[in-house]
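User: I'm new to structure prediction. If I give you an amino acid sequence, what do you actually give back? Let's try with this one:
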Amino acid sequence: MVIIEIIKYIFLGLLQGITEPIPISSSGHLVMAQEFLGLHTDGLTFEIVVNTASLVAVLFLFRKDIIELIIDTLKYLKGERTEAVTKNFQLVIYLIIATIPAGILGVIFKDIIGDTKSVIMVGIMLIVTGIALWFIKNKRGQKLERDLTLKDAIIVGLFQAIALIPGISRSGATIVGALGVGMNQKTAFKFSFLLYIPVSLGTALLGVKDMIDTPIDSTLMISYVFAFIASLIASYFSLKWLKGIMERGQLGIFSIYCFIVGPLAIILALIFL
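Assistant: Good question. You get back a string of structure tokens that encode the predicted 3D arrangement of the chain. For your 273 residues, that looks like this:
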């Protein structure tokens, strides 16, 4: 039984890791897996563990960009105002501003969001995600990091806030928003996942109290470790895969996926749940 339990958590960790970066809603897929396959976890604690693994993967992939942004921010605050330093400091400010809408709404509607998770809701929102991706699949923006504006940051931040709805992909929403304001594929990818860092950190911090109130059962600890490792590895390779897809302008494949899985999830939920 212990082996079976570990395999279950490894599967859920892989599922989270694969679907977190790509625009098909990782939380939605976890909801469907738990309902259709009966792979139930203890809820928020597990989600924090596997999301943290995805965060580590993002931090590793963007480690050079993050270090550069930190160094240039410190330089700017110390009075060094070269063009490159100023632009990087400005990018940090834009990332902070873009985080605010999701942060505020996440705190206000935390309990409501958790209570509205259902397979039917996920299916509907996957269709919505698919429609949004279909409209921007051929979008070829020209904006680079140095061309971004406060308005761009606010718009992408609002799109990220929409992704609080279960079944709406966070990466999908931010990429749609970024491409919609004219960013090129590379800039949209980078801005989307740099924006993931403060949101993921915030989610983990908000969940600390819940983890303290309901600590991980010692019998589940090994399963959580395996799930973390699975999610970490899967997230890294999924990120690399998405980067290549965006560079080739092939986001349409995720739109098609959403159009297939969304209605299928609704039909199966109506029949079996």
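You can read the tokens as a compact description of the fold. Here is one thing that stands out. Residues 209 and 215 are 10 Å apart (CA to CA).
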